Amino acid sequence: MLAQQQQIQFSVFSGLYDLIVPKDNLLRKINDLVDFTFIYDELVTKYSITNGRTAASPVRMFKYLLLKTIYTVSDVDVVERSQYDMSFKYFLEMSPEEGVIDPSSLTKFRKLRLKDNDLLNLLINKTVAIAIEKGIIRSKSIIVDATHSLSRSNPYSALEVLRERSKLLRKAVYAIDEDMKVGMPEKNTTDELEKELAYCSALEKYIEADEPLCQIPAVKEKLNLLKETVADTQEHYTLSKDKDAKTGHKSADNSFFGYKTHLAMTEERIITAAVVTSGEKGDGPELPKLLEISQENGIQVETIIGDSAYSGKENLEMTSEQDIKIVAKLNPIITQGGIKEEDKFDYNKDADMFVCPTGHLAIRKARQGKKNRGKNQANTY
Fold it and tell me: What share of the chain has pLDDT > 70, as a percent?
């Protein structure tokens, strides 16, 4: 069974870890501090107990993905490094002489096993629990805000990632052999994703033709990372349209296509809740959910700190009922409740405009009331 595979297999060589991996090593600290068995509990339904061959431990597979994120390497390179890097083996709870998985297994786990699991809030919950247990969180305030995220199906975001990783590969090559510049394929200067993919593929073939160069770690890691990015882009970004992403607004004149990640964190900078919405959603309406998740994760909240987007009438009433203070600039446009409840328009603080339910920004502000009568006039949209 999978649960039995979570146990470390000790060997006569296990003492090497105490000699080679320092006590202050980052991976040793994470491994000693965090009980990763919760990953097994979350993913157990993704595996069959009775059919097929014995599966690799989901905890170990998840740790491989953490290593990928921490060190920004490809599936191939993180597996290869775990063959000889003792800190990696210690983190993965392997015996020093134990063999590694095939990189394709990690790719499959990354694409299939983690699908439809809300691991973001799961990890946040575990992080908060550890912080509370260790006495790190002492404040009773949360800070709320939102960040913009481009959709991965947006061709410009994928194109930018490809360009950045091809650039890093070229720099690694030039640092070893500047003469390679002469035969480099011509860069794509358009905003067409297909042409950028073609350029990256040509770049891969050109560099792979020099076998000794490809064996140099600095080049090899960048090459593998670019190849993995190209493969993921071809599989996900160009074959399907992201139907959940919508156009949001950073300002009245600056928009983006994608999502918003709404965050709550303590004064100790520990994230306590995260909610992802489409890009057109306002920040304020997500406050009740952020507060609820933070409280479910064990945070005692007495004060909420945010910007004017969170000072809406509904939020002020909701927090007042729980005897929670909101520290945010009051904006009369949203605190006065000028928009009808049934219309469900959101106020976008960045653009200083209202956004309709389908994501369209108001085109202008107008004035009502008698001209030059000060308070008799009010903003409408």
Answer: 69
